[in-house]
Amino acid sequence: MGLKVTVLGCGGSAGVPTLGGQDGRGDWGHCDPGQPLNRRTRSSILIDGEHGGRLLVDAGPDLRAQLLRNGVGRIDALFITHAHADHVMGLDEVRPLNRALGAAIPVYATSDTMDALKVRFDYIFRSPTPPVFFRPALTPHIIHPGEVVEMAGMEVTLFRQDHKVMETIGLRLGSFAYSTDVVAMPAESMSVLQGVDTWIVGCFQRHPHAVHAHLDLVQQWRRHLQPRRTILTHMGQDLDWDWMSRNLPDGLEAAYDGMVLEL
């Protein structure tokens, strides 16, 4: 048995649809509201390792609904790519996961990200209160790009990504890699990605964006790396599912909430 990756959410920071719209039921932009695969919650994945460990990557504000929808009642570790709100504001939801595990959950992040988490969620890092866990409990582990770190029993290679407003961290496990919130990829990180087979990568829209990759940029990276399968995530209202189905070339596809990859 290999890795199983579940795309819990594949939307941008405001999701699709965003709040608003003429009737107050959402602004869909160029996305067809009649296509269910256009409905995107904030970006996160769950990785099930070959030995049974479960690693949650990011914990956005939609986390509770995402875990319920996908039947996830336990995780073994949490990895945070960066401290933006759409990747961390669901951290309070881990309390039932503490109860399932019976312990504080190890969380892996850079020192800058961990400092931000400790300011926003100081109570999560206090002494755990088993078995009831009347507050969530995380045990901090500082990581650095370029390291190989064991998380949930998996050897994870970490690499640096440029999000312009801050650095984010991508990860690679064997032939799989995940890169969200990136607009420029350092040369050493492209080296880490060489030989990847399946790559989930952030792509916010069709046209250039200040802090996120767009479709042509992802295509450039893809031509350089030549993965067998490239899957877009962190998508905004500009990227309609049916348009992408008609226009994306072979080997490039869009993620959808609930997508499962068996690797």
UniProtKB/TrEMBL annotation:
Pfam families associated with the record: Lactamase_B_2
Metallo-beta-lactamase domain: residues covered: 41-214
InterPro entries xrefs: Metallo-B-lactamas, RibonucZ/Hydroxyglut_hydro
Signal peptide per UniProt: none
Full protein name: MBL fold metallo-hydrolase
Species this chain originates from: Teichococcus globiformis
